[in-house]
Specification:
It is a single chain. A hairpin with a 2-residue loop joins strand 12 and strand 13. The termini are far apart. 9% of the residues lie in helices and 43% in strands. It is mainly beta.
Length: 229
């Protein structure tokens, strides 16, 4: 048999067997009337976020007895969010309104919001500690969720809430509008990443400086952070 030739490409090199896992550090940002996201709150009990892009489907056009071209439909971004609980600030996003302290009603107008969460990047050397990604979703609207209450038995389970999320894209200078943005900690400057995280998660009062609320910056502001000299 002839000898196998040498190739420039190498597969599964040590340290390059990457994967993603987990979901954590969820933050909810109710949208203000001017389209910004001025105040974020921690979302405890977040168990899953399933991103579901759709669209971008080809429609073939024919002319002169041949395939003439493909027209691509608009792409949309949706998601499914699952959690054991949700922050009080999510109530208005879930179509709830308060009649009085501790008394709520449903089927009300639903407020738009932004969402931020982290996933881990792992590899064969560092396991789950290689890095992480920060995922940001803009212009979210939550559809009503099903809640299944069951008796407590010898195999108790906590109720899991689930919401189908639709989105409205926001403007990005030089690009088409988008509803999703991802920052990879293994590829960006660590100092700039910490600047962004201080904005996303807020900063406590320290050394005579007042605390700063968490907020969700729009894509152009994020781009300017990582473009800074």
């Amino acid at each position: 048999m002839p000898q196998e030739p040498q190739y420039a490409l190498e597969w599964d090199k040590s340290g390059e067997r990457f994967y993603e896992t987990g979901v954590s550090n969820g933050v909810l940002y109710p949208q203000a009337t001017n389209g910004t996201y001025p105040e974020g709150v921690a979302w405890n009990g977040l168990t899953a976020v399933t991103e579901s892009p759709s669209g971008a489907e080809a429609t073939a056009l024919y002319a002169d007895n041949i395939k003439y071209l493909n027209l691509i439909s608009a792409e949309e971004f949706g998601a499914t969010v699952e959690a054991y609980t949700y922050p009080d600030e999510f109530a208005v996003c879930n179509g709830e309104a308060s009649l009085n302290t501790g008394v709520t009603i449903g089927q009300q107008a639903r407020k738009a919001f932004g969402l931020c969460y982290q996933t881990k990047i792992g590899n064969d050397v560092d396991a789950n500690d290689h890095g992480y990604k920060i995922h940001i979703i803009y212009g979210c609207l939550a559809a009503p969720s099903e809640r299944a209450y069951a008796t407590i038995n010898d195999s108790p389970e906590a109720i899991t809430f689930s919401w189908e999320i639709s989105t409205t894209p926001v403007a990005v200078s030089g690009f088409k509008p988008t509803a999703c943005l991802v920052i990879d900690s293994t590829k960006v400057d660590a100092t700039k990443l910490n600047t962004l995280k201080s904005i996303l998660y807020g900063t406590p009062s320290s050394g005579g400086q007042s605390a700063v609320d968490a907020r969700l910056p729009l894509p152009d502001e994020i781009a300017s952070i990582f473009a800074a000299g």
